[in-house]
Amino acid sequence: MAEKSEITGRVHALRTYMQEKGLQAFIFPSTDPHCGEYVPEHWMTRQWISGFDGSAGTAVVTLNDAALWTDSRYFLAAADQLNGTPFRLMKDGLEETPTISQWLSRTVHSSQCIVHSSGTSFTPPKGETEGAFKVGMNGWVNTMADVSGMKDELQKANLHLCIGDDPADELWENRPSIPNNPVEIQPLEYAGETCESKLSRLREALQQAGAEGTVVSQLDEIAWLLNLRGTDVHCNPVFVAYLLIEKDKTTLFTNPEKITPEVANYLGENNISTLPYADITKALKAYKAETLLLDSNTSNWNLQASLPESCKVVEHSSLIAPMKAIKNEAEIRGFRNAMIRDGVAMVKFLRWLKPAVAAGNETEISIDKKLTALRAEQPLFRDISFDTIAAYGPHGAIVHYEATPESEVKLEPKGLLLLDSGAQYQDGTTDITRTIALGPLTESEKLDYTLVLKGHIRLALTKFPKGACGTQIDALARYAMWQHGINFLHGTGHGVGSYLNVHEGPHQIRMNYKPAPLLSGMTVTNEPGIYRAGEHGVRIENTMIVQEYKKTEFGEFLGLDALTLCPIDTTPIIWEMMLPDEIAYLNAYHKRVYDELSPYLNEEEKGWLKSPLPAPPLEECPKREEGKM
User: Fold this and answer.
1) Phi first, then psi: what are they for 286, rounded to 5°?
2) DSSP class of 408
3) In the Cβ-directed half-sphere of 172, how many Cα atoms lie within 13 Å?
4) Alpha carbons 248 and 51: distance in angstroms, whole number
5) Which of 423, 436, 562, 585 has the most Cβ atoms closer than 10 angstroms to its Cβ?
6) Is residue 627, in this structure, part of any structural domain at all?
């Protein structure tokens, strides 16, 4: 991470650049040209200019101020990282926090700066007018929707949006290059459907949408469509490319160094031609068909701007995301097999953990390394699926905490450890959180743990009609904690890729409305949490699969089945708060964990796994009506 003095120097250099270009502000999003959540270092310009390294956020620099917007997952981490830099923290999602356009309106119009305008390469989008107060954005890393929305908002504030170059091209010393790692073929035994079949289905969907072609920008969609994988993005098995799909041909735009002879033969067999990555602009300028489908929420502005005026852009949500989200039989089988191997690694780790902590030599980083090493012993392991969150005590309240040599703490035989981790196996991607009691707990820790567990189980038990979306079942995970006046601000569940990105859509489980329905074959996480700043955090997460439950005269109903196989710590539970069906679920889940993992464990590991699992007999737990605790 850059020193805070370096951040100040970069902001100063940027302001000089802005004055030369006639700009009063510049906006840096977190994304790359492919709208990725995790991006190659080359495009980490928001982190470069601000020093904040979370996966979500937007940095804005004016000639006399700077601010960074991020969501509740990063409030604590961002406040720490921005302290001592020119940036102030804007807590996105809170009622009192201004939008970027509102803040710019106040900041730019109130400034008394003198602007030196000199033949800028920045040009307003069509319909925009020249004006004294200009805000710059890079058209390669901002989506069509983001540019259009920001343009409208800024116009209301009498500010003019200008799309132009990337300041980092000129200012970022020793900027990392775009990665050129080799591409690999994902075997059909794990993919479950040929590339030819997927492209055929996509072309049918394009025809129904009234489009003759499309540009696929999102890297996981390209990887899934072509049954290819790569290592260009940290923790995500994807590669940097664009894919142009027309009626009668498919062209992959990626740097030639990435294509091995084996992959070249594979692409040739599937009638897919290749061109250099940078040639996408040239190809779109020469595009002959009358229509091209683009998802305005995932396609960068410059793709649209490169098309000839004769081409009509058909704006439509991704046609690939809902196809990819429903896993086929081979992918589901791969998930289940990957979860067994991951569960074995987790059991070995959990059995080791408490004695190791009691011995007095473990830290947040050391246990992360131990868990990764145990996963790496498993067949088909390729990488971790995201940077491990090993958060002890107060660090658990930082939702996306990542230990560093400067921040890590020693683990002690008391309190709670929140451990959120996952792995990339070639047949499946895992994502699991366990909160573990390392020793004696406070009553607050026990209460929060029990409420989170109740929410996790209540969501796992739910049955719902086909067509329901995640927002319609989200309250089930929050109900118990709501009765205590407690809530969490992050989503309750997200899709998980099949040896792809650990976060995928279009479906989610969260409070704010996400209309994509939950359908049989979709994977989704179940991860409620409670976070108390300066004290502790609790989250319990399993990856689930949506599957058929029953059909009645009222329609088809679906339910959730746990894919994750790992014991849930029972020592923090306040048993008298648990309902009988919650206890029954927990016992059944733990029996299944033992039955499926024990064949792969030695006798000592099997003994450890079996001994702490059963909950108290139901008759020892008083029956309570939900909500009366």
Assistant:
1) -95, 5
2) -
3) 19
4) 46
5) 423
6) no
Rounded-to-integer distance, Cα 415 and Cα 362, Å: 14
Whose tokens are 């995928």? That residue is 504
Q: Which of 171, 193, 219 finishes a domain?
A: 171
Look up the CATH number of the domain holding residue 133.
3.40.350.10
Query: How many other β-carbons are positioned within 10 Å of the β-carbon of residue 315?
Result: 16
Q: Is 349 left (phi over 0), alpha (psi -120 to 50) or beta?
A: alpha
pLDDT at residue 2 in the model:
74
What is the pLDDT of the chain when averaged over all its residues? 93
Q: Report the range of poorest mean pLDDT among 125-134, 229-238, 499-508, 568-577.
A: 125-134
Question: Which candidate, 3, 8, 25, 27, places its Cα nearest to that of 85?
Answer: 8
Q: Are strands 88-91 and 66-70 parallel, antiparallel or unpaired?
A: parallel
**Span 611-623, mean pLDDT?**
55
Name the strand (E) or helix (H) holding 350.
Answer: helix 329-359
- Distance separating the N- and C-terminal Cα atoms of the chain: 46
Instruction: Please give the pLDDT value at position 111.
Output: 58
* Phi and psi, residue 432, nearest 5°: -145, 140
Q: How many domains does the chain have?
A: 3
- DSSP states of 91-140: ETTSTTSPPHHHHHHHHHHH--PPP-----S-BPPTT----SSEEEEETT
Q: pLDDT at position 4, please?
A: 82
Q: Is residue 178 part of a domain?
A: no
- Whole-prediction pTM: 0.91
- 3-state DSSP assignment of residue 532: strand
Residues 162 and 189 in one domain: no
Strand, helix or coil for residue 335 = helix
The alpha helices in 193-260, defined as continuous H runs, are: 195-208, 219-226
Q: Following DSSP, what letter does each residue of 260-309 receive, concatenated?
A: -HHHHHHHHHTTEEEE-GGGHHHHHHT--SSEEEE-TTTSBHHHHHHS-T
Are residue 334 and residue 208 in the same domain, yes or no? no
State both tokens at 566: 């790992």
Q: What is the DSSP string of 597-618?
A: HGGGS-HHHHHHHHTT-PPPPG
178 vs 548: CA distance, rounded Å: 43
Cis (ω within 30 of 0) for the bond into 617?
no
Contacts for 618 with CB less than 8 Å, ≥ 6 apart: 580, 583, 584
Provide the pLDDT for residue 157: 85
**Are 63 and 113 in contact, with CB atoms under 8 Å apart?**
yes
- How many CA atoms within 13 Å lie on the side-chain side of 429? 23
What gap in Å lies between CA 68 and CA 58, rounded to an integer? 6
Domain holding 70, by residue range, is: 4-171
Residue type present at position 83: N
pLDDT value at residue 254: 98
Task: Note whether 316 and 338 are same-domain residues.
Answer: no
